[in-house]
Amino acid sequence: MAQLIITIDGPAGVGKSTISRRLAEHLDAIHLDTGAMYRAVTLAAMRANIDLTDPVQIRELIGQTEFHFEADHDDMRVWIDNREVTNEIRDPQVTEKVKHVASMDTIRHELVEWQQRFANDYPRIVTEGRDQGTVVFPNATVKFFLTADPSERARRRQLQWKESGIKVPLEQILQDIETRDASDRTRATGPLVPAENAVIVDTTRLSIDEVIEVLLTHIPETA
Fold first, then answer.
1. Could you give the domains of the chain?
2. Do 148 and 203 contact (CB within 8 A), yes or no?
3. In the chain, fewer beta carbons within 10 Å around the N or the C end?
4. Residue 221 φ/ψ, nearest 5 degrees
């Protein structure tokens, strides 16, 4: 049986993580959160006081550090040198700084290989990120690209952090989102653009359940 790969790309705050987890559970598939990999490298660099704009230092850090990832239908669990950091990689400081690591061509090439090797171990994958359908899995079974109004994305991110006990001004979140969008869209490797054959879904006025219903209409019933 052919491997099932569903890619869900899009910018921050469109609901990729929640939707990917729910869809993976519905399809009895593994949820691959590729952003967790970039966050893990960013957190390791921050702890080592490494210049986040220096790809040479970042590559050396990757070579000297043990990263381990485990996934199921839910959140990806992350370890750095045998210490679990699943919660720490979601810290707002990591969120603000991950764009530096994600914009480096050499680091993206490295992590694309991580993602492809990870997927090889599973027959059914729902993977989320920013270049999954264009770069990482160009032959995916079905590709989706989610969008939403920036102000709505900022509101969702603020609510997500508030539920975790973190208070961040809405204006700051919106500014960070717009800065990250610009960085993602203009980088040389794996820019944030829909794949030519991706199904584009605007989630601004849709609930999670409504988005899932839309996605399922594009996935073969035999999947």
1. 4-216 (3.40.50.300)
2. yes
3. N
4. -60, -25
